[in-house]
Structures are given as C-alpha cells and as structure tokens.
Specification:
Blueprint (H helix, E strand, L loop, with lengths): L1 H4 L2 H24 L9 H30 L16 H19 L4 E2 L1 H11 L10 H16 L3 H30 L3 H13 L1 H7 L1 E2 L1 H24 L7 H16 L4 H17 L5 H29 L11 H13 L6 H8 L6 H6 L7 H4 L8 H17 L1 H12 L27 H12 L2 H6 L2 H18 L5 H17 L11 H4 L2 H9 L11
Parallel strand pairs: 1-2
Length: 537
C-alpha cells in the first residue's frame, strides 16, 4: 500500500525510537529500573524482539497518521448546520452544559496541597512565598477571603471555580471559532469539540483550584494568537493588525502569571519568534511592532512580579525545584552504593539536604523528587551548592549507569503510553465543606470514567507528547513548517520543563500546556488547501 511505502525512513526511525523508549518504560513501570532488560542475555533478546514487534506495529499506526495529515483539506463552504454560524457561542454553550454535572457533584470545588497553601498565605496563616506564582496565589486567595467575609468560604471557592470554568470554556470555544474561520473541515472541528466537551480531564480540572488549569487555558489562547500572528506575518497581502499584537501580548503575559516557569517558556518562544520575523520581508515598522509584542510580556512580568514580591514581602523561592534531578540521582546512589562515598562527600551532601546522609537513600522515591527536594536547606550558600555538585560529579564518574537509570526512571512516564496518570487531587482545608458526593467518591468516579478506553487514550499525556513529536517529524519530512515549528516550540519548551520537573506520576497537569493546546494545533496545521481546489473555495 502507498500508505505504508511513503516516507519509510522517517517513520521507521520514529517507530523505532517509540518502541525502545516504551520498552524501557515498561521495565521502569514494573521494577523502577530500566536495567530489567540487561540483566541476562535472555532478557536482552526478549527486549530486542519486543522492540522489533512494536516497531512494525507502530509503523502502521504512524503511516495512517501521516496519511490523515496528508488528506485533511480546507473546506470554507461548509453547509453543516452546527458550524454554519455563531460557532464560538454554540461551542461555548455545549462545553458549559458538559461542565454542569462536574460543577454540581464537586461543589464547592476541589483543592490540592499547593492551592491550600496559597489560600493559607492570603488568609495570613503562613508568610507569602514565591514557591507558587504570586498572582495565582492572590487571585485564588482573595476569592476565598471575600467569600469568608460574606459568610461562606465555600461560596468564595465556588465562584472562583465557576469563573475558571467559564474562562476555559470561552477560550476553547474561541479556538474552535478560529478553526472555523480558517476553513478547517467539520470532522476535525467536531473532534476538537468532542475532546474539549467529553473528556473527564477537562471537567475534572476545570472544577479544581490548581494554578495549572488557568495556565493551560491561557496556553490555548497563546498558541491561537501566535498561530494567527504567524499567518499574518506570512501573508504578504495582509497587514499585521494592531488587535493581533495586543492579543498576543495579553495571552503571553497571562501565561507567565500562572506558572513559575511560564516566563521561561514565553521568553524562549519569543527568541525564536525574533529570529523568524527578522528574516521575513516585511516593512521595518511592522517588524518593530512585532518585536515590541515579543518583549512587552517579559517586561510586564518582571515589573509586576517585582512589585508583588516587594509589597507582600514574599520569601524568595529556593532553588529546590531546579535540584530535583540531581537530588534524585544522589538519593538513589546513596541507596544502592552507601559504602562507596567518602566522608567529605557525605558532609557536602548533608550541607544542602536536611537529612543524615544514610536517610537520603532510605527516603528515595523513584516516582517523585518531593521527599528529597523538600528537604533542601534554605540556608545553604553558594559554596555549599558548589561542593554538593562536586560530590554529585564524583558519584557520576563512579557509577554513571546509576545516574542514567535514575533519570530514565524519573521521566519515563512522559513517554510510556502504558502509564495511568488520571488524577483528581484531594487536599482540602478545614474551612471548606466536602464535595457533595464526598471527595473520595468524586475522585473514584471521575477517574473510573477516565479509564473508559477512548477517554483513557485521549487524555493520556504520553499520547499527546508522541502526537506532537509525530506531527513535527511529518512537518520536517514535508518541509512544510509554515510557522508550525514556532508554535510547536512553545509546547516543546513545556515538555523540557516536564523532563526537569520533580515528578510525572499522577501529575499530568505539568504537561497541560501541550495537552490542552495540541487539539487546536493539529487541526490548524494539518488542514491544508487541496491543489485541485479553486482558490475561492
């Protein structure tokens, strides 16, 4: 079949990489170590056979996926009744109707450990800290605080949750409206609407007070505005509208407010955008306008964050989040090779981790760096950190395989499609009532619904990440970037922070900038004009 014979090399490489990573991921899911396949010759032969079988199977999957990308066409003369007019409003109504059951059974809304701590900061129970984004802390905390002043903390939390659901639904419906205006065919639009409406993931997190929901919503808005900005940049007959510039600035700034690494993602994407716009044949005035749009969100973020930190006297967050990976490697090293470390290195490690050196290995958790990173000594100075990394490096030279295996085990869940990371957090403060059905019961039923096969696939973080990789390979092979790789860079930066983060298991929210945005990106960048179609169609 032509479907299988086209782009053979690229699809074989993609399928082979997928198979090797997922076979290693299977080992990690069973033994918390990829070494399972390398302990004997028989195990290694099984590993090779599984990789070959998987490569052949996945090759067919990617072949049909590439065929789908090739044959998705623009159709601006849609006569479909639903998508015939007022698409944004209709989509918004459908999405909100789907949210109503979640809003009812979860009333007054869900919280987690992070959001509970944010609320306590605003209520004055603990000092402000930059460990969580300060704007997110104030935004959530003051809804709850005002609710308490009015006599009901529950009401304050619910109003926050309801507004969050409205904003997320509005941005999702706006993205569908943009797809409609471009002429994306109805099948793709219905698929995007189905994903946004039916998946328990969206109903679940739209009714939870976690900063990642707003971050994900504004990530969708950002990729929508960035894709349209790039379309106008590429269209020599179109002026870049001032409204487009303003919307880009607003969306980028909102992304930075709801996750601490949001500023790095926006700055990184902005640097690529600067390089891209510099080579375009556009008037200097338009280039200057776009350059201002790229720089302003970062400048606004620094100004707002500086003001909030100063006015709230917020404690500066430590470097512990950035130490997740090396701390995990140190902890596993001390667990597996406790006799292979010098007294000097023990002292260097204890100077930055508030455990006795032998307790670090005992508290190692293969799935999360929290037990170790949360013991980072806030009083550790630069010299202590330098000495720690010297000790870390000496461990690397002695047992490099341990460090590599630790990292693989720490991040395999972002790529291993067999991982189950549906989650509804439970971390409720005593000031709130329990959910209508009970927090544990709500968690059970939402996660059970998420295990339905179609839903399980469509809200799996690894599935989205491999879809992003596959689409990027397809675009490279077809030499059809057309602005796609700039939009994809935003999601790849998000993936990079997942790979540097403290955990993956039961935390798909770290990949929400990819998962929430990708349905729009796939529809926008795979739907193309058929060469046989009339240009007016």
């Amino acid at each position: 079949m032509n479907i299988l014979k086209s782009n053979i090399v690229s699809k074989l490489i993609l399928s082979g990489v997928f198979s090797v990573i997922n076979c290693l991921g299977y080992a990690c899911s069973k033994t918390f170590s990829s070494a399972m396949w390398f302990r004997s010759g028989k195990a290694f032969v099984v590993f090779v056979l599984l990789c070959l079988i998987s490569t052949i199977t996945i090759y067919m999957v990617f072949s049909y996926l590439f065929y789908f990308f090739d044959n998705t066409e623009i159709n601006k003369k849609s006569k479909d009744r639903f998508f015939g007019g007022k698409v944004g409003l209709k989509s918004f109504i459908v999405i909100m109707i789907a949210r109503i059951p979640y809003l009812i059974i979860t009333y007054p809304g869900g919280t987690c450990v992070d959001s509970s701590y944010q609320i306590r900061e605003v209520l004055g129970d603990v000092p402000y800290s930059t460990q969580q984004p300060l704007f997110s802390t104030l935004f959530l905390g003051y809804f709850v605080k005002i609710g308490g002043i009015l006599g009901s903390y529950d009401l304050g939390l619910f109003v926050y949750i309801f507004l969050q659901s409205l904003i997320l639904a509005a941005i999702m419906s706006y993205s569908i409206s943009v797809l409609h205006d471009k002429g994306v065919n109805n099948i793709l639009k219905y698929l995007v609407l189905f994903i946004y409406t039916a998946l328990p993931m969206y109903g679940n997190f739209s009714t939870m007070a976690v900063k990642d929901t707003y971050y994900a919503a504004f990530s969708i808005l950002y990729v929508v505005e960035l894709s349209q900005l790039l379309t106008e940049v590429n269209d020599m007959d179109t002026r870049i509208r001032f409204r487009r510039i303003l919307m880009y600035i607003l969306s980028a700034f909102l992304v930075t407010l709801f996750r601490s690494n949001g500023i790095y993602v926006i700055v990184g994407t902005g640097l690529f955008l600067i390089c891209y716009i510099a080579k375009e044949n556009k008037p200097a005035g338009i280039k200057f306008r776009v350059l201002c749009a790229i720089l302003l969100p970062a400048l606004l973020w620094f100004a707002v964050m500086g003001y909030m930190k100063s006015s709230l006297n917020a404690d500066e967050d430590t470097a512990r989040e950035k130490m997740s990976i090396p701390f995990q490697q140190t902890a596993r090293y001390l667990r597996d090779y406790p006799d292979d470390i010098s007294d000097e290195d023990r002292r260097a490690i204890e100077a930055v981790i508030d455990y006795k050196w032998y307790e670090i290995g005992e508290n190692y958790d293969p799935l999360s760096a929290d037990p170790i990173k949360n013991k980072y000594r806030r009083d550790a100075n630069r010299s202590d950190v330098v000495n720690y990394f010297k000790a870390w490096f000496r461990g690397l030279t002695k047992h490099p395989a341990s460090y590599v295996d630790t990292y693989i085990n720490h991040v395999f869940g972002w790529f291993y499609v067999g991982i189950d990371n549906d989650i509804r957090y439970i971390g409720r403060l005593g000031i709130f009532s329990e959910s209508l059905w009970g927090d544990e019961e709500v968690k059970y039923w939402i996660e059970l619904l998420g295990d339905f096969p179609v839903f399980w696939v469509l809200q799996s973080a690894p599935v989205y990440i491999w879809m992003l990789i596959a689409l990027s390979v397809y675009k490279l092979v077809k030499k059809d970037g057309d602005g796609y790789f700039l939009v994809a860079s935003f999601m790849f930066f998000g993936l990079a922070f997942c790979l540097l983060g403290p955990a993956f298991y039961l935390h798909p929210r770290f990949a929400f900038s990819i998962m929430f945005s990708l349905p729009y990106v796939v529809a926008y960048y795979t739907c193309h004009q058929n060469a046989d179609q009339n240009e007016e169609v």
